[in-house]
Structures are given as C-alpha cells and as structure tokens.
Design brief:
The protein has a single domain, classed as Tachylectin-2, Chain A. It is 8% helix and 42% strand. The protein is mainly beta. It has helices spanning 2-14, 30-38, 93-96; strands at residues 41-45, 53-55, 58-63, 65-66, 69-73, 80-81, 104-113, 116-123, 131-138, 151-159, 171-174, 180-184, 191-196, 211-214, 219-227, 230-237, 249-255, 276-279, 285-296, 299-308, 314-324, 330-332.
C-alpha cells in the first residue's frame, strides 16, 4: 500500500497544472535573453506540445489547456495562438472519468492521415490513473476553411484504478510499413504501446494488446521517431511543473522494431530502467520535456517545452536543430546567432 501511495504522490507531482507558482522572478537581462534564444525559445507559453504538423503554409502545434490550445506559424519562429479544439468537454468525459471537472484537457498529439487530421488528447484527474485518451478529427487545420470542424470520435484507450498503467500522454506514430501505433503512459508500470486501425485510430477489435516499452520510477511523455531504419523512443524522467525547480530531463533509447526492445547507448533495456540522457537543464533552460521531431525538407527539428528561468519558470516552447552522431544517436543543437 505504501508503495502504491508513493507512486500516486509522484504522479501527482508530475502532472500539476502549469500555473504552479514559479520559483524565480522574470529578468530583462539582454545577455540572459540571448542565451534563452540560443537554446531554442520561441517565446510562446506552452505545456505538453504535440508533434508539429504542417498544413498548407502553416505549421501547427497543440498543447495542454482549456479545450486544448493551438498555435500556428509560417516560419517556425513567430507563433500566434489559434482557436481551441473543444468549447465544451467531450460528452463521454464524466462517464469515463467521473472526477473530471471543467474542460482542461491534457497532452495532445496530432497526425495528418489519409487527408484528415486526427488529434489525440487526455481526460484525467491529478494523481490518479482513472484516465482516458480520446481522439477527434478535422478535415483541415485552417480555421478559415468552410470544412473546419473538430468532430470527437470517442475513447481510444482508458485505464482505471484496477490497472497498472495510466492512459495519458499519447504519441502517435506510423511505422515503416505504414501501420499506426500509439505510445502512452505515465508512472505506474511505465510506457505502453498499442496498435491502431488507420480507419478509426482506435485499437482493432480483438487486438487491444498493450506492449511494454520502458519503465522507471518517474517516467512519462513518450514519443517514437523513425530515423534511418531505427525507432527512437524519447521519454521524460523526473518531475515537471515546478517552475525552475523542475527536474524533467529527456532520455532516449532505440530499437530495430517499433515494438522494441529499446536499449540505450550502454545496451540497457529501457524496460529495466535504461535511457541515455539526451537533454537536461542548461542555464535558464530548465526541465525540458514532451519531445517531438519535425522533419521539414532536408532538416530535422527537435521540439519540447521547458521552464524559462528568465520568465519566472514559465512553461515555454522550444525548437532546436536535430542532427545525428556517426553511431546513429540524436544530438540536440542550439540556434546559431541566438
């Protein structure tokens, strides 16, 4: 029982609302501001950013917030807020997660698939694993288009206090054979993977098997990226949402198949606590988390949120260049001239 209570307490700390009191005061020091820019800040207040997708001339990203926040940009530098996804919570929310209140939805991810946009999101409550991942669709991401309308498609996967996993932090990925998969998970027994039907973005009937990918005492926010024939699993260790006291850091492992096993640079299985440190706190760049990768032409970009020490520990969007070592491991760079 004590172990279970400690796990609940840890989960609570990891998903506290981003309005948590910051642990430092904003600064206007130009040298510090330049350093934050060098480390990829886009100056946008954001938490749990989705994968960046491009629709028409605009890049879009979605984030935790009231009804799910959206932001768009034409150049990946300057971002403007777009419309929220939901004006009201999905009709099924209170039935599946009885303690859910309001319309504050978590940790979305988005993919463009077969000429439609699919957005995954989370209904949950702090510190509990009675949670559900839902999905909504839209014909376009352009709010000016007459076809623009989000249509909720219901529950994809759910968990309860009878389960040993937590159905939050979805990340959707197409494998090399164009099969669709969803990684998710926070604390409890770690990161899971389930196959999805491309037509519904839900597990095929009779094939809802969950695979285990990674485990650690404090783990969440998975993301899988295919590069040069290998699958890379990015996860977060540590605690988020404490402003400049956050201990979030991004870890990585890789596998020859999307189903794993994922191992780190030392060959340690991520299911046994493996995970190579990729990105941690660096000066005013505190607690990076919720990684994703954008392949844009011949360049790759690494996106995440971090707690900006120049803004009192506010959750902020960062995009940094991504390259790869000779051994095939990701390297997150800085912005030249920042």
């Amino acid at each position: 029982m004590r172990r279970h209570l400690l796990r609940l307490a840890a989960a609570l700390l990891s998903i506290v609302a981003i309005a948590a009191a910051p642990s430092s005061q904003p600064t206007t020091d130009p040298a510090v501001a330049r350093e934050v820019a060098r480390l990829g800040s886009r100056g946008v207040r954001i938490h749990d950013p989705s994968t960046i997708v491009k629709a028409g001339d605009d890049y879009w990203v979605f984030a935790t917030g009231l009804g799910i926040r959206s932001y768009h940009s034409k150049d990946l530098l300057t971002w403007e807020q777009g419309p929220r996804v939901f004006d009201d919570p999905p009709a099924w929310a209170h039935e599946v997660v009885p303690a859910f209140r309001g319309n504050y939805l978590w940790a979305p991810d988005v993919i463009e698939l077969d000429h439609r946009c699919w957005l995954f999101y989370v209904i949950s409550t702090f510190g509990k694993n009675t949670s559900a991942i839902g999905v909504a669709t839209n014909a376009t991401l352009d709010p000016a288009d007459a076809r623009y309308k989000w249509s909720d498609q219901g529950v994809v996967v759910r968990s309860s206090d009878l389960d040993d996993f937590n159905a939050i932090d979805p990340a959707v990925t197409l494998d090399a054979d164009d099969k669709l998969w969803l990684a998710f998970g926070s604390y409890w027994s770690g990161v899971k993977l389930v196959r999805l039907d491309r037509a519904t973005c839900k597990p095929p009937a009779g094939d809802e098997k969950l695979l285990s990918l990674a485990k650690h005492k404090s783990i969440e926010a998975p993301y899988i990226y295919l590069h040069d024939g290998r699958y890379y699993l990015f996860v977060n260790w540590g605690a988020c949402c404490r402003g400049t006291a956050s201990t979030y850091e991004i870890r990585v492992g890789r596998a020859g198949a999307i189903t794993g096993p994922y191992v780190d640079r030392d060959g340690k299985d991520m299911r046994d606590g493996g995970g190579t440190l990729l990105l941690g706190s660096d000066g005013p760049f505190i607690g990076p988390g919720h990684a994703s990768v954008l392949r844009d032409g011949d360049r790759e970009w690494f996106a995440c949120h971090f707690y900006d020490a120049t803004q009192g520990g506010r959750g902020t969007f960062a995009i940094r260049p991504l390259t790869w070592s000779k051994e095939g491991w990701p390297i997150v760079g800085v912005i030249a001239g920042g």
